[in-house]
Amino acid sequence: MLRVVAALTLVVAPEARAQRVTGPWEDGTIAPRGVLRIGISPRFGQWKERYGRDGTREALGVDFTRDSLGPAVFPFLSRLSPSLTALTGLAAPPLSFGSLQTNLEVTEAVTHISLDYGLTSRVGFQALIPYVKNRVHVRAIANQGGAAGTLGFNPATSIAGARQQNELVVTLLGTAASTLSSELTRCVGSQDPSCSAINANRSGAVSLVQLAGDVSGAVASVYGTSASPGGAFVPLAGGALHAAVDARLADLNAQFRTFLGAPTSGEWIGARPVPAVPVAAADLESLSSDPALGVSARPLGDYEHSHVGDIEVGAKVLLIDTFGPGATSPLPRAGSLRLAAAGIYRLPTAQLDLPNDFTDVGTGDRQPDLEFRGFGDVALGSRLWMSSILRFGIQRPDRLVRRITDNPGDPFPELAREQEVGRDLGDVLEFELAPRYVPNDEFALSALYRYRRKGADSYEGVFQVTSADGTPLSLDASRLGIGTEQTDHLMGFAVTFSTVRGYARRTARWPLEISLLHTQVMSGRGIPRIQTNGISLRLYRPTRGNALRAAGSGQR
Description:
- By secondary structure, this protein is of the alpha+beta class.
- It is built from nine helices and 23 strands.
- The strands form five sheets. Strands 1-4-5-9-10-11-12-15-16-20-21-23 form a twelve-stranded antiparallel barrel. A three-stranded antiparallel sheet has the order 3-2-22, with no helix packed on it. It has a three-stranded antiparallel sheet with strand order 13-14-17, with no helix packed on it.
């Protein structure tokens, strides 16, 4: 493309004078008086990485990538501890669904429709209407490379054979305990050799009967039987908890053999409850969406939506202009200066990211902003000029619904944490430089550098709620503002073709500019690493008289 542009510029360059082909970046110009400048700019962005709070690059799905999906991620797991302690004998049983690896990628198509109208030679009105289409690609993989957890979904909730197997374990424990209890009664004062082990340690035998009853109840409550529904989660086959259950039952069997001797066939406790299989993709959906588990959110997965962004309206005033009158006059001598100022009001018209979709990307902030802009253009030579822009945005407070997390990046906050909070986004400061090389009336090559800094967001609200596991929670919305400061350095370039000068000379039918552009966030903190490609089209339409040709009638 650059070779073609270079060849065309050489073809038309000999008789051309440098012309202010504006290109896609902002500058201090306004539309000529009585002219409506219409811009349409579809831009296609993509990102799968972000710059973390320390400025390092990290995968966009880092918050949803965990070595262990335990109680810190899913608080409802904590309520399993008492039953599993009785079942395994472990004071602090390890609770985890295993690991989670999540890859996120966002693609965004934004079409900017801009309207600039020259009310006078120094005052213009502006409007910008963005239409945004977002698509979030999500690939969540649980227990990649093998089972790494200790818990899974209980097969007895859907498989009758699993319930029968669990009931057999409960029956064997009950039979062994009942037999030993009867022997304790029979052996009181007896010299029968079969009573020697019991009489030698009657307290141990009594404790064993009690322990067998506790374990039997734990098997029924955790795994489930025909008479007990059991829990939603049970120890995972091959995991640490299942190994502890197996060791517990083997130890009980050995103790019963010590007191009662070997049974007539098999073992006193020769069966084991049915364990779970590792959590898979469908199980992840249940963990995040099942209302009974407390999170009650949209499962991790691809999502697409379209909506208008935050619309801007404002006015621009030309303060100083030694470039010469009209948008179509040639570039004057080096040192020419143009200064302008603008005020923008941003309307809350965008669609917010959904609080129950943890990977959703909204089409804007959906809150009112006031933004002040200062423009400075200077001619550095007969074919080169530089635009600089300073923007300061004051973001106004509003209210919205958020899930209040204890720590930034908590991946699956519960529904109980969803509250309406006060929000005041941090104010924004931007500085932009855009050098433009204009070899002739038709073409321009331009570059862009932008520095942006946003202050920390502020949230208000304190709430007392109850977690899914019954734990009282005190929520402080101010924690949502932790780590929300942002800085970024963006660079870009554009190639522009213009017929505006040709239209003024009556050699072109339509006055327009078309640009190909590319931008990339090069570094930053707390910001996505966005790469954007796009097209920018500007069409000049006189609304009274023919200001463009009038302005250019004397130019050759």
